């Protein structure tokens, strides 16, 4: 399940995947980002505070979302990673592309 | 080969015998080659003597690789029981195969016993295929809109597209003609109990091939001792069909590949940026001070991005800031540009209005066009190079349909390239030696040649682009196993020497060796005997002669593959690659396809006649003539297979119909 929070600003969407973000739910995340970007919310933050497990398909959906947001003139950031998610990020070197932010506010400020 | 043939381990005795023969072959081979180079090369005719010695050295290295492969030969027994809850997608890949043929495979795929979903991946996007697939109750997938006007990457692209819209833990990949047994998943999934296993490859076996196998379609040595030997080194590789793959491993490969490509692409663009900006600056004067100022801003942004990258900041952040800085610079140019546009419009409005009569109107148009060309109305357009630079400093991989490409797209044999990358990431592979799918081999010489050309080109592309010897993460054994496969495709050049040497001796008395005396036999015979024994023991019970014939007889094809692969990788030329036709055949014998071989055979026969005459006239020694006549006979025996292949018509198989 993915919670959507649009209360931050008119062009911001915060997506909050719950539980495990794996090959089974990667499509849901892609669809959620698509929807948000399509609605003009091109600044997407994925809040991973409630996501205890992610596999490479989940990461693939994040990368797909990054492309969507960037091509729409916005950005996609990830925040509040749990230890396991941090590990897969580092294992695939994806941390060399995407900065893992400590929290959603930090991700929104970009620091 | 029966499907239910028991899977037996390689016995201890057989393994010891193989290893002893490997050692004997290598010792005798090194002895022979050292003697050849030091004492036997006839330097007087170095132009053929050296190529021949090189060809023999090539063959010894080939024997070394064969020995190394069989050293660890491993025949696995049955897999552990398949985990019941494993989710699987079965992919039937097609491009232009007849709908009936694809459906036969799809229906068999539906009947696979382990729970799964079946999909037809139709790269031809054919309406009748869609209808038939949906009627049969299987899923139907074609490329998404993202692939329009972007590189399609053939079968790798087809699979990458499907990976993003399916979700099974494992995928079984089947070519359109490979009809699976209902057991295929039950027999293989158990190997994935080991969480490090990414791939289980099973043999490819063809049901439309007669016992004589004129086209050499069955590959009993490859789908047997060679893959089993590679398996012993954890280097059994993916052959594109009849294999089960772990999705997580592929997706991980896709993410790692995305990071690597983005880092390289951005770094390359930023390196090139200085000269791009400098070049643009030369033109900038014509576009006014705002453009020059914008270029200064771009230059500063490039410098900052480079130092941010160097300090290890994430690429996404660096490129995002870069884009925003460039955007800001661009806005100033646009504002300036608009002002100039308004001024020019005003000027045009002041030009003489067209009067009555075509001549004047044309004149007026010309005047306007000339002014347009002279003034260059689009300062931004003139800075195309800068725009391209800016677009390249991004993390969206805009040139590709998908940012994440799990299957490697560097080669037309995406399977081997993907397997090598999986091994480099530490994943394991399994070769499961049990026929669990039956396919259709090419039925004409033309189709067969095209298929072999594609395999060899693809393998050589991988060798040139990602040389296994320098890939991080591979063990030494894995590096050598991949190199062994690539090495075997260089055989065409060695064949030239093996064909030319006896002809030159018989026709002109040009002898590449100092003598064919006792020393020659003393060094050669042990090597020949040991290597032949090794080959016989390893290939015991298998029909290996066809493969041996074709590895020499297709020499023009192997050479063409080398030339085109180098042209493709180094000079970006087309490979001349087409999808292998699997159904139908050409009409009449296809002599033109084997012209080089026909020339070679004619030369060999002529040489034999001339050599015999020369012997009668006392112009040649009996020793040299007989050795070379035997050599010619062997060459002819090997090459003769192409005569049969050119006339070959496939038998109509009763169980499968082709349209």
Strand and helix map with partners:
The complex is a heterodimer of chains A (111) and B (659).
Chain A: E1 2-5, E2 12-17, E3 19-21, H1 26-38, E4 43-47, E5 51-54, H2 56-71, E6 75-79, H3 83-91, E7 100-101, H4 104-109
Parallel strand pairs in A: 2-4, 3-5, 4-6, 6-7
Antiparallel strand pairs in A: 1-2
Helix pairs in contact in A: 1-2
Chain B: H1 12-40, H2 46-71, E1 88-94, H3 99-110, E2 117-122, H4 127-136, E3 139-141, H5 154-163, E4 170-175, E5 179-180, H6 184-188, E6 197-201, E7 205-206, H7 222-232, E8 243-246, H8 247-284, H9 289-310, H10 315-349, H11 358-375, H12 379-382, H13 384-392, H14 414-424, E9 428-431, E10 437-439, H15 445-465, H16 476-488, H17 491-508, H18 518-538, H19 545-553, H20 555-571, H21 595-616, H22 622-639, H23 641-647
Parallel strand pairs in B: 1-2, 1-4, 2-3, 6-9, 7-10
Antiparallel strand pairs in B: 4-8, 5-10, 6-8
Helix pairs in contact in B: 1-2, 1-18, 2-7, 2-16, 2-17, 3-4, 8-9, 8-13, 9-10, 15-20, 17-20, 17-21, 17-22, 21-22
